[in-house]
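Section 5: illustrative case.
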């Protein structure tokens, strides 16, 4: 009867295994272009392959010089600034608005307000069209209108064929000036964000990146805070409207339009289109400054289900406008910018510690970025890899780089920079960013000249000045039991990173009084009698349930077979057969593992915690809660019991007044997309070995059916032992 939590795990794990197998199979297929010809070739035409030229004989022409087109600039009467650029190569018109806002302006306690606002501006539709109607209209003409808000800018963009410019511009105008913020789309994005919170610890590389930035910038600052369930619960439609009206007004918007247009005609069209938008607000304040919080040290995020250590090493960086930024970018490229970089050559090629490693001096337009060295290594080589990184940093600060290293890095930086300007649209986008952040018009050329002028002495000077080994923040995500040496060997105190995710806020429970406890116990006794009596329930020491179920897996109905086995007081095993493989989950209440076609892995702490909740909700055990001194039973309403324990687990148990049998169980859990209010509805009660059990269970998540299960066979006190349930399955081969 334990269908609530483990089925989602089984589905996700098995689906991942299936996707991996599909990718591997696809990789083995030969593209049609590489298959043998249908007819034999003319033998007289067959020649051997031409010899490859020596690499040092290859000659390449210089890349074209960057040219910056000058867009026509205007300011409309309402204060909106226009930038128009003609490009008649294709019959296409595109544009984007930059709005001075960002998630740095999220209100405390409501982190995510900007992101939700930016998303629902488009998905929530406008006063003229719903978001869904807009989707259809745009798809029919191969056009797009999109919106979003990032750290320090909001955007609304459009793209269309020239012939559809008028209709698409109207939709673009409506999204920018009169979004409807429909409640159903707000609820949808909040559900999606809740899912991202639930899954944010799935990828160790993402954990390392997130924690590294949050530690350096400060967890309680706009640059380092993390969205929680409580933030989402605090965000309502009125918050989005208030955020929108504060930052979306004409004088706070830069609008660029480019493509197959006439500047004069487009200017007139936009002046007419936006003539009705005259909202006014005070000037937007400056973005918060970065607080340079000392964060030197070693930080460990323990994750038992990984076989590698993912790491980030570095400290606060600088601005793109800093005079030493070009030399720092060259220096970082020499240190870790590619296959020939020092870190790659030493840590991967020579020592074989890591598959990937890289270094960046990641500056930002308007606030200091991060200097970071990141990658992954075998668990046993964690400390050795980090020590090698420190050694390579020291070399960069004490000895000049070679002439070949310098020239190679400069060529790479300059050549990659050119590709930001290889199309007029990308060029205009870059020009707009420079204007948005207050950079000079000729910044592109200043930067190119500065990179070209970098010398070996410059690289040594900036490394000595800006690379600070004594201020390194080292974040490691891995299994410390597999480290070859303890992290403390690095000479710094190891500080643990808490990866727990705070539970979503819940409505306050009904007050428990002596009277409600007495009433609750009385009703529980009636339920025990209906289920066979307390003594027979207490005699249940093991169970086996064979179940067939239909499960909703992301909108797709999947048939599954499941065998659930339980040995009191807390040993549990569940074997689930899915269309793409078998999943087995085991726990003794303290530890556990999951086995799939991909192998056996220990259950991480969040899953173990949820599984302990499953054991708390085991129906026969729940019926005897009055015999457990750690549990509280209280009457929460008519025919409703509130049962909780000292570990924080709680349920609402609804009882059928006619039969006194449980009719449904309501509790908070984690579903496929994050936290849910779960409900189990019980029916088709049958007697088995003197006790009654439900043979039909419907599981709902937030009111929607997740699983419809039928118990095909129920055994009470079968010959099961805890040791037998703990046996891991033999290794299996994934299905093709």
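Designed sequence:
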């Amino acid at each position: 009867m334990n269908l609530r939590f483990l089925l989602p795990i089984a589905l996700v794990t098995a689906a991942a295994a299936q996707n991996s197998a599909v990718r591997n199979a696809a990789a083995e297929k030969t593209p049609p272009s590489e298959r043998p010809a249908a007819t034999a070739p003319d033998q007289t035409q067959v020649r051997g392959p031409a010899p490859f030229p020596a690499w040092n004989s290859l000659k390449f022409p210089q890349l074209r010089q960057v040219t910056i087109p000058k867009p026509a600039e205007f300011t409309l009467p309402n204060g909106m600034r226009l930038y128009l650029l003609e490009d008649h190569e294709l019959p296409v018109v595109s544009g984007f608005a930059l709005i001075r806002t960002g998630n740095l302006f999220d209100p405390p306690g409501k982190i995510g307000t900007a992101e939700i606002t930016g998303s629902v501006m488009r998905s929530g539709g406008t006063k003229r069209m719903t978001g869904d109607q807009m989707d259809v209209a745009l798809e029919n003409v191969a056009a797009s209108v999109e919106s979003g808000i990032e750290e320090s800018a909001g955007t609304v963009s459009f793209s269309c064929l020239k012939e559809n410019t008028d209709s698409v511009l109207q939709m673009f105008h409506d999204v920018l000036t009169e979004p409807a913020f429909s409640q159903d789309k707000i609820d949808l994005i909040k559900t999606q964000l809740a899912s991202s919170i639930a899954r944010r610890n799935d990828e160790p590389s993402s954990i390392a990146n997130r924690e590294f930035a949050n530690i350096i910038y400060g967890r309680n600052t706009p640059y380092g805070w993390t969205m929680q369930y409580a933030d989402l619960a605090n965000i309502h439609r009125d918050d989005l409207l208030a955020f929108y009206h504060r930052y979306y007004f004409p004088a706070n918007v830069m609008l660029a339009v480019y493509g197959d247009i006439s500047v004069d005609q487009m200017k007139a069209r936009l002046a007419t289109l936006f003539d009705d938008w005259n909202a006014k607000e005070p000037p937007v304040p400056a973005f918060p400054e970065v607080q340079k919080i000392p964060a030197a040290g070693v930080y460990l995020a323990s994750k038992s289900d990984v076989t590698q250590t993912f790491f980030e090493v570095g400290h606060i960086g600088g601005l793109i406008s800093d005079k030493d930024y070009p030399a720092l970018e060259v220096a970082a490229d020499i240190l870790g910018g590619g296959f020939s970089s020092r870190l790659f050559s030493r840590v991967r090629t020579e020592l074989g510690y890591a598959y990937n490693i890289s270094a960046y001096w990641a500056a930002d337009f308007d606030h200091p970025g991060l200097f970071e060295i990141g990658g992954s290594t075998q668990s046993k080589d964690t400390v050795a890899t980090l020590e090698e990184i420190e050694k390579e940093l020291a070399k960069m600060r004490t000895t000049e780089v070679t002439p070949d290293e310098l020239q190679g890095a400069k060529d790479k930086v300059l050549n990659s920079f050119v590709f930001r300007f290889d199309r007029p649209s990308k060029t205009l986008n870059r020009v707009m960013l420079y204007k948005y952040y207050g950079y000079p018009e000729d910044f592109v050329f200043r930067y190119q000249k500065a990179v070209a002028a970098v010398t070996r002495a410059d690289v040594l000077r900036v490394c000595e000045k800006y690379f600070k080994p004594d201020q390194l923040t080292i974040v490691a995500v891995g299994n410390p039991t597999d480290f070859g040496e303890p992290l403390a060997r690095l000479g710094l105190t190891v500080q643990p990173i808490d990866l727990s995710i705070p539970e979503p806020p819940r409505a306050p429970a009904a007050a428990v009084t002596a009277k409600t406890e007495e009433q609750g116990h009385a009703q529980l006794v009636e339920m025990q009698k209906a289920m066979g009596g307390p003594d027979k329930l207490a005699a249940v020491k093991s169970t086996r349930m064979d179940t067939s179920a239909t499960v909703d897996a992301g909108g797709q109905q999947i048939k599954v077979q499941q065998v659930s086995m339980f040995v009191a007081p807390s040993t549990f095993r569940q074997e689930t057969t899915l269309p793409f493989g078998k999943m087995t989950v085991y726990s003794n209440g303290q530890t556990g593992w999951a086995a799939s076609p991909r192998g056996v892995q220990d259950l991480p702490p969040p899953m173990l915690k949820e599984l302990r909740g499953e054991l708390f909700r085991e129906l026969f055990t729940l019926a005897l809660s009055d015999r457990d001194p750690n549990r509280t039973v209280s009457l929460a309403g008519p025919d409703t019991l509130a049962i909780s324990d000292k570990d924080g687990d709680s349920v609402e148990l609804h009882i059928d007044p006619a039969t006194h049998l449980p009719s449904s169980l309501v509790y908070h859990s984690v579903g496929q997309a994050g936290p849910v209010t779960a409900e189990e509805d019980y029916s088709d009660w049958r007697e088995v070995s003197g006790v009654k059990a439900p043979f039909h269970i419907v599981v709902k998540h937030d009111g929607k059916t997740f699983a419809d299960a039928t118990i095909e066979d129920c055994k009470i006190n079968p010959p099961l032992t805890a040791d037998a349930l703990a046996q891991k399955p033999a290794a299996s081969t994934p299905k093709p």
